[in-house]
Design goal:
Helix content: 40-55%
CATH class: Alpha Beta
CATH topology: Rossmann fold
Oligomer: single chain
Structural class: alpha/beta
Shape: globular
Strand content: 5-15%
Distance between the termini: 34 Å
């Protein structure tokens, strides 16, 4: 199923559009969402992240998207910190489509099969830049390293 919206229309009607897409996804029993890739288009990146966030929080869906690291959508992505939304870096222009789709397709196949992303795939997302969490433990450093590397 494909849903589309003009990137000029979306910013002015965000809530209305996201609500409608949620209704469509619920009615069609959508299991996984792919948004984009947006490349360097800021309005498209913003729409991708907002739609993914809305579908993930409302329906618990896993979402995959892609965009250039300087796309303003990445700031929203980092703000939300949603563990069910995966954003992969792309080039700034559409000529990078093959590379973008290879990264995204690999993740989509795994997630669509009910598996989680492997460590290499997780590190390839923007999440790898900010997913670290500080925590206190009584374990020795060597013990902590072994535990964290097994995950």
């Amino acid at each position: 199923m494909t849903v589309h919206c003009g990137d000029d229309y979306f910013p002015e009607h965000r809530d209305e559009v996201v609500k409608k897409i949620i209704e469509i996804a619920r009615a069609r029993d959508v299991q996984l969402v792919v948004a984009g890739p947006a490349f360097g288009s800021g309005r498209h990146g913003y729409a991708c992240i907002e739609v993914c966030q809305g579908l993930s929080t409302s329906l618990g869906l896993t979402c995959v998207t892609g965009m250039h690291p300087e796309n303003p959508g990445i700031d929203r992505y980092k703000h939300y910190r949603n563990a069910n939304v995966f954003a992969f870096p792309t080039s700034g222009v559409v000529s990078g489509m093959e590379d973008a789709l290879q990264k995204m397709a690999s993740a989509i196949l795994r997630l669509g099969s009910g598996l989680s992303l492997d460590l290499r795939q997780k590190r390839a997302t923007f999440r790898g830049e900010f997913a670290w969490r500080n925590s206190w433990t009584r374990a020795e450093q060597s013990e902590r390293w072994i535990c964290s590397s097994e995950r």
